[in-house]
Design a protein that fits this description.
- Helix content is 27%, strand content 14%.
- The chain is of the alpha+beta class.
- Strand 2 and strand 3 form a beta hairpin.
Length: 230
């Protein structure tokens, strides 16, 4: 998810006192006057189809040209039977960034992981000015996620999409869902999912770090096996 919601959405840079020439990966060159301020858009490069495997259609936006704005964890897993759709997509061994993609996931199944080109995945910036706490943050994220999802599942809270005419308690919501048919469940959950994506698309903001600053997205945490939806 750091690809879609990086902790820092923009990386500010300033050129040196004299003109500075940049060489793009396309071979083109750009000369910046001395003292020029630039802002590197992290999300744009994280969703650039030149660097990331993608499908020609989106799961949540039929009008989109590809699925790069979708959360698809399988994007990081290589399938030898399905060719990658990005120009610069490479298999394990070509990273040269983010400490070799954190040592290619500790070299466990590294040959089956997609490794983006250098500069294509920079949730903590890159180079000598990259975030000092990157490794700690990655270990913490993995440890917390593994601990939670080993015993619990997370679903969207659908109480606002049940046509009851009144505010429902958690027990009443669960009872209402239990009485629904499969089609009704799909309808209610689809509405909750659409609202969540709308908030994520338009409600994120921040000066330094990316934050959820407007509406909140309600979730339901339950022990594995106690899911109300699939």
């Amino acid at each position: 998810q750091l690809r879609l919601i990086p902790s820092v959405p923009m990386i500010p840079k300033r050129s040196s006192s004299g003109p500075q020439t940049l060489v793009l990966d396309t071979g083109a060159t750009i000369t910046l006057p001395g003292g020029t301020f630039t802002h590197f858009c992290v999300l744009s490069v994280h969703c650039n189809p030149r660097y990331w495997p993608h499908q020609p259609r989106s799961l949540r936006d039929p009008s989109a040209a590809n699925d790069l704005m979708d959360f698809v964890p399988e994007r990081w897993m290589l399938d030898e039977h399905k060719p990658l759709s990005s120009e610069n997509a490479t298999k394990g061994g070509h990273v040269e960034s983010i400490e070799e993609l954190e040592n290619s996931a500790m070299e466990i199944g590294a040959d089956k992981l997609f490794n983006p080109p250098r500069g294509a995945f920079v949730p903590f910036s890159d180079g000598p000015r990259g975030c000092l706490g990157r490794r700690f943050a990655m270990v913490e994220l993995v440890a917390v996620a593994a601990t939670i999802f080993r015993e619990y599942s997370v679903e969207l809270d659908v109480r606002d999409h049940i046509d009851s005419g009144q505010t429902l308690s958690t027990d009443e919501v669960e009872a209402s869902i239990a009485g629904m048919g499969e089609e009704r469940k799909k309808e209610v959950y689809a509405k909750a999912s659409q609202r969540a994506w709308r908030i994520l698309d338009g409600g994120l903001g921040g000066l330094v770090t990316l934050q959820q600053r407007r509406e909140k997205i309600g979730v339901r945490v339950c022990r594995r096996g106690g899911e109300m939806f699939w």
